[in-house]
Amino acid sequence: MAANRSWKKRNARNSLADHAARGGFGSTLTIVVTDAVKNEMNWSRWEPGEAGLLAVFSYSVPRELSHYPSAVKPYNRDGMGTHSTLVPSVQQSPAYHGELFLNPVDGSILRLTAVAEFQEEDILLGEDLLVEYAPVAMDGRSFYVPKRSVVLYQVPLGEPRTYLEDALFLKYHRSP
């Protein structure tokens, strides 16, 4: 999305937190990796990470083969959308592309980016996603879980509006 658009920051409680609560960023990772390996995935470069070099792979998935779940519930197209008039029943699977950042030592995915390629008839105008993953110890085992997610999306509410949601995921624990 163009850098000169107006940006609004809002509380991530609505769509982003709901998405994460449903396990969305875990399932997003599964869907992106599955789509990427079945379509176009290529070595890109080495990039410095916190614990050493990361292997970066780029990928691209066409719309007709996409299973990408938009992280944001889209607004009504009538220009009267508010957070209370989100349309949860609309599921869009746009074409998308992005990168996967892997730890070359153990193969763990530490970062995922996805840029949705919406078309004019789609409800959302744009969506860019970044999810960072990190190991968390629970019950003596290590699990890679979302650490941070950033979603930048644009909705048509009269004049298109751009929103930025930035969330940190803390205090992971097992349910009793």
Protein architecture, described:
This protein has 176 residues and is mainly beta. It has one domain. 12% of the residues lie in helices and 45% in strands. The chain has two helices and eight strands; from the N terminus they run βααβββββββ. The protein has helices at 15-21, 24-38; strands spanning 7-9, 40-49, 52-61, 95-102, 109-117, 126-138, 141-157, 159-168. It has an eight-stranded mixed beta sheet with strand order 1-8-7-6-5-4-3-2, with helices on one face. Strand 4 (95-102) and strand 5 form a beta hairpin. The longest helix is centred in the N-terminal third of the chain and has 15 residues, at 24-38. It is globular and about 50 Å long. It starts with 6 loop residues before the first strand and ends in an 8-residue tail after the last strand. Residues 1-24 and 74-90 have low confidence and may be disordered.
